[in-house]
Amino acid sequence: QACCPDEGRFRFVPLPIGAFTMVKRRADEDEEETFQRGRPGGAGGAEERASARPASRPVAEDGGDEPAPTSADVSTGKKGKKKPRKSGEEEEDDGGEPLPQEIRHVNRLRLSDIEEGTVFVAAVREVNEEELTLNLPYNLLGYCQRAQALEASAASEAARRSLMELYPPGKLVIAVVTAIVELNGKKMRVEVSLRPALANAGLTAESLQQHMWLPAFVSGEEEHVLKLDFGVEKLCGLLKKKELAQLSSIPEVGNILMVAVQAVNAASGTVRCSLSSSEPISSDPIEQGLLKAGTLVSVRVKKVITGDSNKVGCGLVTNFCGSLCGVVHLHHQASAVARDSEFKKNQRVTARILAVVPGSPPAVHLTLLPHLLDWTSQGDSLTLAASIGDRLDGEILDFKHKFGIRLRCQTVKEGKKAKIELPGFCAQPRLADPDSEPPASSLVPGFSTTYRVLAYNFLDGLVMLTRRPADLEEGVLVSVTELSPGQHVSGTVTRVADHGIFVQLSDYVTGHVHLRQLTDVPLASVSKRFTVGAKCKCRVMHVDAVRRQISLTAKKSLVKDEFQLTDNSKAKPNMLVTGYVSGIHDYGAIVSFYGGAFGLIPAKDMEAEEAPALGMAIRVRVAYVDKKRSRLILSLNLDKGKSAAELQDAAEAVAASRGAEKKEKSGVQPGATASKVEVVRCGEDGVVVRFQDPEGKQLVGYIPLPHLSDDLAVAAARHKALADELGVVALTNDAAAESFEDAATATLPEDGVVLARRYVFGRPSKDAENGATPGFVLLSLKASLRLALEEDCFVSKLSDLKTGRSYAGYIKEVKDFGALVCVGSWRVSGIVHKHQVAAKFVEKPSDELSPGQSVRVLVTGIDEEKSRFDADLRPCPVAPSDASLLTREAESLRVALSQREDLAKATLGKKTAKKRLSLLSPGAMLDAEVKSVENYGLVLSIPGREGLTAVALKENMPEAFKAQEGAAVKCAVLDFDPESGIADVSMQPELLCATSSSAGASSSKRKSKKGDGAQEAEASPLQEGQEIPVLPALQKKAYTVLWCKDPPAVVFAPPYGVKRWKEPRPTTVHSVLVGSGEVPRVIVCCPAGGKDKKGGKVPRILRPEEELQAGSPIKMRIRSIRGLQVFCTAPVGLRGHLHATQFLDLGAVGSGGENPLEGMRKTGVIEARMLRMQQRSAGPEDTEVRGDKVWHLELSCRPSLMDPKDTSEYEAAVIRWSNLKAGRSIAAAVLSVQKNTMWMEVAPGIKGRVTLLDASADLSVLRSLTEHFHTGQVFQTRVLRAVSSQKELDLSLLPAEEKGVHKGKGRPHPIRLAKLQKIEENVGGKGMIATFRLPERRRATAHITELFDVWAKQPGKRLKVGTIYEVAVLRDWDEDAPAGFEGRAEVSLRPSLVHGRKE
Hints:
This protein has 1399 residues and is mainly β. Strand 67 (1311-1320) and strand 68 form a beta hairpin.
């Protein structure tokens, strides 16, 4: 395998035996300490090779190598003659150590420059299980075998893990060259190792410095720390586990990490480490052997080499750590998309050591690329910005002969309007076709044309491109990702091996055809017709995008077949498919298809037919499809088989015929209105009715007894009345065919709703299913369904449902496991499990539910495959989108109460009903006597009224109220049951005072009724639409009785809300029902909102995986408040945490400032909604946990999420690195505030940085950041940049549109705050330029003429670097800018523009 670095790729080259040699024998594992890398005082070939080579490889003017000048050449010039210095002439250098030699060119590292022991910063490019391909500096490639990617002492423990898990593409590593493969005397392949023992060779505890950036592998784990091994004897590292939150996965023993040295205990050899590398090492002199690639150093620019990059090696010459010299190549000064990479002599910058080539002194290459300084992976950013094969527009930045061109590319991704700039590189062989030369005009800077992406260079942070005309043609493959299983391809055989052939599909894609895939019947060897250069037609079997490999098949049966089975889900019974036998076992033969699809031919089937051979192409019939397990059962019997095209035509024909039948069918559909309903026959469980459909056609229907009303008691009473009038008969299915023209009828006053088009008694038989048995139209008279139909909320099919929404429904059937519910059509049913029936423990669902009972149904999930949904009947708030449901529930209750009074009037007689209902109307005051004192309250008797009993429950009495038997008391009526003669009463003083005052005020207007012991209550002062606070009094199946303190009143609400609460909750008056008793009955909607001061008892959750899902309401007990989180628990084995950002709903970016955790009690019960749930191992503190696992819940108390929502909304509220995108608004809590920076946390373990200019647009705030921001405050922020691989997040408190801009009166230019960074003299011949930093980490420049309104002497000295100024923006960064100033805003400090007046 030969590396072609100039082409940015590698290819296979046949090497003759003995043609390649190793430059040096690779060191054995036990010889790692003697591995020579040019350590001080070391002996061996490293120093001998370095004796004739300068440190930075200077070249002569013509580009050839020249010998290194002596140390005297730095000051004497040529041939050692000392150059005389005139009197008064200043030295060119103003400080620092002299350069070891005169360096006139800074050249890139070439493959010929690399030697054993060279240490690089590298990035993972490609991964397979045996080898890593690494991006080395300057587009070179390195190869690391699996054994060298794991530390020898821990390889056995980490061997079970995939290299892809340990080294994802883009990961930055430290690589040491161990060997170089030569071909005919030319270096071709670089072998490297990632083992810390080689990278850290020569280090000791005494030589370690703070902030050194070193590789180490995890050697062990303790309770709070990970133990690290640097591969150095008597040196052990410790890393706190709390820092592991920065990593995407928890490292295991054997994993290699990059850590920064924080502190060293030389006596014990212990090193305290950190995962962040942001500070350079000390500038004190350091031994040359201690230079480690990857370490940050503070360097001083000693020389800036500029000119034509094609002729001169441009870059920077620097010194650091005393007299050490390092060079920065032009390509590593700044990214290709950066527009401000100007440096000047003696400037101090922070650089990272890119490569160290052994020698005396060693050659040190540095880098200033931002992502390498931050140690940030470019794996995600590059792959998301451009895919392999994409076409980009590129502009040339510079050209280097025999190397290539560097470009600035632009691309537009789907869903984004703004163009994305990418750095790119095109190797010289890819500039034109092999038989031609590129025009000279196409190599000059500024030339733009179209390029195509070939690969990624994750180290230099650029895309590898081609502009060869042949590569830009449509249909030319450049990546395996452009192929899919089953695709037909053709290519040329490039290699024939014993195991198969290699087929070249393009210059960049080569596939492998295994020996078994060459012919329909496998051969023992490759057929002679497959020769190098022969054309071959194939189909793609598998695509491995990670390894960039494809497997092909040349079997004629598979290549010519018209249908390709690529997924088991596409298979249908009796479908004929073609595959090949991939395995033969005792239980049968495995037949494989494309893309991993496979099926099984049972052994019993092969006994009857001819058994297939391994590798043979075979045509089979799909006998059975198991969709749930995604398995196929195949058969060799093809008699009933049909091709995929025939099955598709048949399916289309069936669908067309069903559609035609559906149109031809006459009959009413679910959700239609049934008018003029007349009862013609009454059965024990329901009534047969005659009605008219919307088209006026007379039909026969059936109404089950519970569907005669929303109130089951009213429904039973109505059925009894109809039975008394018509009599009860046994109902059969034959009644559906009768006309009932002469039958006695009873007219029902209301219209009905069709639930099902066809309904039969008993268990449906085959005749009933085929339509041979007559069936009824199923109807309902429930007002809740009729009102839903009127508002177009009736659910007639499953697709009408939405998860997280609440619906008016009814119980279809009660089961031992729970119940079946419907929310409209009889056929659209869902399952309610036992634990979701009520907010309390339910042993038997039949104790809580009855068939036909009206309920409020919360849809928690939809199973389209099983045509059913999951539901929850526990009380919960209604989402704002379901606000109309509250009104419909209240109207349904009004109808049911009206029906109840009408039945009472019919049963008791008009006068009796009027008198009794007037006496016991809600709110009426009674004089009573205590009959007995019970545990649940008081039993009262009404003097002068036999057969009437009053009951006062404890919750309806004042806390301090005490009564004895025989005591006379006053009470207010809450509700009365005429059948049982029991009245529920209240002794709350607010109701009694209101009743007494109203009775006294009305005594002069009407006469008191003697002998009844009661007084009539005044008409209710409540009006429709009025909002009142209420408290619970009674809970019944059909309704809830509530009472109000101000104004005092007794009201009625639907029974679907929360059962008990202690603080008044708001509700709205729906209607005032005036009944027979001439006392109004007030109907209100279900109360919503409000919170109790005490949460009460925390319910036990025994099966969290079944009872909880995203969005489930939950109560937990607060255990502690630590940092920005509230930690809570619930039985059994539940642990929850609430982040400070999950307490508030914020608006625009920059809003907020409240600290939700301030003043919060560290004990009590909290109500929240669950966002997600994870199962983890139980710790020693989890004593009450039954097993070895606990459930950790992430919760939210945001008001907008406390109401039921769709599950996706709760899942979207979980903050992960993957959903942190630039531009997103997100809540963040202040973690710490420093002078110029503020750290904020958006979720546990995810923290971001807010720079000074992004914190506020108010200059006074920026001057005292610590006084305006405090830990715990929550603000709405905007994401500027998120790098998940390095866990880096930049936030802003400024809105995206405003960006701190404000315009004043008479000031036409937008005003921004800017921080002065530097003042440069005569930049580009344009004079003095001041460089500023703007919000969002953008830059701006101001010309000398824009600093003041009037001329000032030495204007640069009147400005102070680091000061924040108000500037007027003359030209923004999205407008055209002069050459050399692209990407910068042009600003002005002139007071006339900034402040509107001259100074």
